[in-house]
């Protein structure tokens, strides 16, 4: 692999599982197969267009797979047949992990955000609109103290 390139789009392949990918590369980064974690190799220029962004044709791509990938000593035909399934499974697992982490973070944020500003207690009760209206009805102007409040602390009694 040519590690002296700064930034570019190239095609790489895994000799172990046969996965082919077009990836942006950055100087001194090792390219690792997303399927089997082996090091990726550059697709030889003879199979690519002059820009290196595309295979010359589908026939050239098939020829590359048959003559280079499948004849490599490290080639594993079982992985070759399964690489799309493995990649989809890894993406699905990663998506599930991300969704679970987001959900956990949202729950933690809710728990962290709602606490008493006076004592820090998380034992809070919501002041309902019905209670607010009833208090104003019973006490008149003296009952408007709860109108701008949403929560009441069960520990210290503060309303906020």
Mind explaining what this structure looks like?
About 40% of the residues lie in helices and about 15% in strands. It is of the alpha+beta class and about 160 residues long. It folds into 2 domains: about 80 residues, no CATH class; about 45 residues, no CATH class. The strands form 2 sheets. The protein has a 3-stranded antiparallel sheet with strand order 2-1-3, with no helix packed on it. Strand 1 and strand 2 form a beta hairpin. It is rod-shaped and about 90 Å long. The N terminus is likely disordered.
Q: Report the major sheet.
A: 3 strands, antiparallel
Please list the strands of the largest sheet in the order they lie side by side: 2-1-3
Compute the number of strand runs.
Answer: 5
Query: What is the succession of H and E elements?
Result: EEEHHEHE
Q: CA-to-CA gap between the ends? A: 63 Å
Structural class: alpha+beta
Low-pLDDT segments: 1-7
Averaged pLDDT: 80
The fraction of residues in strands falls at: 5-15%
Shape: rod-shaped
The number of helical elements comes to 3
């Amino acid at each position: 692999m040519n590690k002296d390139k700064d930034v570019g789009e190239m095609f790489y392949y895994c000799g172990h599982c046969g996965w082919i990918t077009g990836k942006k590369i950055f100087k001194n980064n090792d390219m690792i197969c997303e399927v089997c974690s082996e090091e990726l190799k550059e697709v030889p220029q003879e199979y690519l267009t002059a820009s290196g962004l595309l295979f010359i044709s589908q026939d050239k791509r098939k020829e590359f797979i048959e003559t280079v990938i499948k004849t490599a000593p490290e080639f594993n035909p079982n992985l070759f047949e399964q690489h799309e399934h493995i990649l989809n499974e890894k993406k699905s697992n990663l998506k599930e992990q991300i969704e679970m982490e987001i959900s956990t973070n949202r729950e933690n944020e809710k728990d962290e955000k709602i606490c008493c500003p006076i004592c820090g207690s998380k034992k809070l009760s919501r002041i309902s609109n019905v209670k607010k209206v009833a208090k104003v009805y019973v006490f008149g102007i003296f009952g408007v103290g709860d109108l701008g409040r949403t929560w009441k602390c069960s520990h210290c009694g503060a309303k906020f």
